[in-house]
Amino acid sequence: MSIPKTSWADDVDELVSGQQEDDNIRTVIEYSVNEQGKKVKITRKIKRTLQKSVVEHQVAERQKWEKFGAERGNARGPDRATTTVGENVYLTLSAGNKSAESEQQEEKKPVKSTTGGKVVCRLCKGDHFTAKCPYRDTLGGLENAGDTGAGPDDDTVPPPDAASGAGPTGSKYIPPSLRAGARGTGETMRGPGGGNRDDLPTLRVTNISEDTQENDLRDLFGHFGRVARVYVGRDRDTGAGKGFAFVSFEDRAVAQKAMEKVNGKGYDNLILSVQWSQPRADPK
DNA sequence: GATGAGCGG
What we know:
Layout: E1 25-33, E2 39-47, H1 57-62, H2 100-108, H3 136-143, H4 160-163, H5 185-188, E3 202-206, H6 214-222, E4 227-234, E5 241-249, H7 252-262, E6 266-267, E7 270-271, E8 273-276
Antiparallel strand pairs: 1-2, 3-5, 3-8, 4-5, 6-7
The chain binds one DNA strand through strand 3, strand 4 and strand 5.
């Protein structure tokens, strides 16, 4: 009763010779024809993660039935040459460790829904992100101690039981860097003025060659003083330079000096132009 | 001649 095979896909479920068949891994081989008309072999290894043979009782009973019709007299149960036994295969299609359910919920809610789609500043409850709060300098320190550097905060170390996790009130764990009185990255990441990088003295350098790199400019301007940041304007897609760059210094006087010295200077057979930068246009 | 990216409850 061998039924003639009708397609490549019928060649499924045979063991690759010389391959160990693990009880919990089934190897399924398929052949199909791709867009270029070529035969492709697809080998799939299906791992059984469930308990073996989770089958309804009635279904299991059917395996004992005598065969009838054209199959009369053949061995009981499915003939693996012609029949693929369905298994309980659970596919969990998800990205980022999210369950499918939570992913759906996420799609439903609008992207920026914190307070009904409105952004609310944590400091002043204004209509902007906390980072752009106009009162950030004065209020920021209250929310996150150590923000302004050597502030007058006391050096109180949290009591041991507070550090060990949930207290009697069920408070959340707070990493050491965020505990009151914590010193560390927050301080070292900021310049001496306590300001952030948006108000560093910055020069706009134009007429640079398109293959000028950040490091080239660092070298060029580093002689005058500490360079805080270098940005080279590039084409988004190609990455090629667009002929201008921004160089930020720690010290405004240094920036001033650098501007005077480098402006009009030849570099890479071009004449550099150095001006104070304008603050970045901020989209309102 | 030329004016940046990124982060986020």
